C-alpha cells in the first residue's frame, strides 16, 4: 500500500489520520494520504520560517537560480514517475499529461528563475529643493512564507506555477495540494532533497479545506501571503482568513468563459479550437469554454461540426492508444456535472449530443465518466449558461452583430478568458478591447507564454501572475532614497 506523506523541513512525515486516494478512471485504491493536523501545519510554517532565516535566506540569487534549474532537470529526469503519478491521480490521457502537465511543471522552475535573474528594478534621479540631487533605486526582498493552496485539475502544473516564482524570489512555501491529487506534490519533495534545496524551503501538508490543512494553513499567523487557485467560493473563505493580519492574496478563480465565432472565421480552425476549449481535460480547465456564441449564418453548420467532434472523442484509460477523453476527478464531481445535464433538460434544452454517462466496461465501469455534451435552445438565464460546471459541455447560441456578441460574452459575474474566432483583424482588436476578461485569445486557446500576465477580472480572481507580474506578488519592493 502506497502512503502519501507530508513533507516538512525536508522530511516525510506520517500522521495517524489518513484518507483514501482513489483513481478516477476505475476507482481503484492508489494509497493512503496522511492528513496534516494543526500541529503539522504549524511545524511546516515554522520550518519555512527557519529556512528563510537560514542558508536559503542568505543564498546568492545566482546559486538559487542554479538550484531551481536543477529542480527542473530532476523533474525531467524522473519524467516517467511524475507522469505515472499524475495520470493515476487524474485519469487524464497520456497525450495531455506528457505534453502539458509534466513538461510545463518542470519549465515553471526554469522560466521564473531566469525572469528573476534578468529583470531590473527602477531608478530615478530626483532634483532636491536645495538645488542638489537624490538617487532613488528599488530593491526586491522576498515576501516571506507563502501558503500555496492548489486545485486538482492540473496538479503539478498549477502548483509549480506558484512555487517556481515564489522560490525564485527567495521565499519559502507551504503547499496544500488538493485532497484529490496528492501524488506529484509529494514526489516533488524527493526532487527538492535530491538536488540540495535546503530543508524547510518547500513543504507539503495534505488534507482538505475547512477544519483541515487548508484552513489551518490560511489562518496561520506565520504565513505572510497566500496564493490560491480554485473555486470563487473558496476564494471568499480564504480572503476572510487572510484579512486577519492584512496578508496579501493572489487568486486564480472560476470562470464561465465565452467563445465567440464570427461568420468570417476560418471554419475548420474555429471548430477544432472550440472543441479543444470545451472538451480538453474532460472540460476541467478554468479557461475552458462553456458558452459558445456563433454568428447566425454559420450557426447550424457549426453545431453539427462540433457535434461530430464531440462524438469522435474516445474515453478510456490514460495509456490506451487513441484515448483523448479522461474521467472527471471524483464521484462527487461526476454527480455535480450530471446534475447540470439534468437541469439543462429540465429547462428545455435541445440535447445535441451526450447528456449522460458513456458505457464503460470492466473496471472502468467504476470510474467517473460522463459524455461530452452540447446543448442549444436555452435562454441566457438558464443555470448551465450562468454557473461554472467544470465538465465537458457547452451551450451554443446564435448572435447577429459584433455588439451583441460582446454583450453576451460580458453578461456574467466571471471574467477569466474569452476565445474569439475571426479573420477580420479590426474586429479581433475591437472585441479584445471590450471583453471583460484577463485573457483574450484570438484564433487560439490556451496558448501560453509564461512571460505574459495571467489572471482573472471580476469574480475570476485578484491580481496577475506570470513574468514580472509574479514578482509583484512574491516580493516586497523597497525604495531606497539617497540624498547625494
Ligand atoms: P476548490 O476551491 O474546491 O479547492 C481548491 C483547494 O482549496 C483545495 O486544495 C481545497 O482543499 C482547498 N480548500 C477548500 N476550502 C478551503 C478553505 N475553506 N480554506 C482553505 N483551503 C480550502 O477548487 P477545485 O475544485 O480543486 O478546483 C476547481 C476550481 O478551480 C474551478 O472553479 C476552476 O475554475 C478553478 N480553477 C481556476 C484556475 C485559474 O487559473 N483561474 C485554474 C484552475 C482551476
Automatic annotation (TrEMBL):
Which superkingdom heads the taxonomic lineage of this protein's source?
A: Bacteria
Q: What is its EC number?
A: 1.2.1.85
**Boundaries of each Aldehyde dehydrogenase domain copy?**
15-480
Checking Pfam families in the record gives: Aldedh
- Spell out the molecular function terms from Gene Ontology: oxidoreductase activity
UniProt keyword list = NAD, Oxidoreductase
What InterPro entries does its record include?
Ald_DH/histidinol_DH, Ald_DH_C, Ald_DH_CS_CYS, Ald_DH_CS_GLU, Ald_DH_N, Aldehyde_DH_dom, OHmuconic_semiald_DH
Membrane-crossing segments per the record: none
PANTHER family, per the entry: 2-AMINOMUCONIC SEMIALDEHYDE DEHYDROGENASE (PTHR43720:SF2)
Q: What is this protein called?
A: 2-hydroxymuconic semialdehyde dehydrogenase
Lineage per the UniProt record = Bacteria, Pseudomonadati, Pseudomonadota, Betaproteobacteria, Burkholderiales
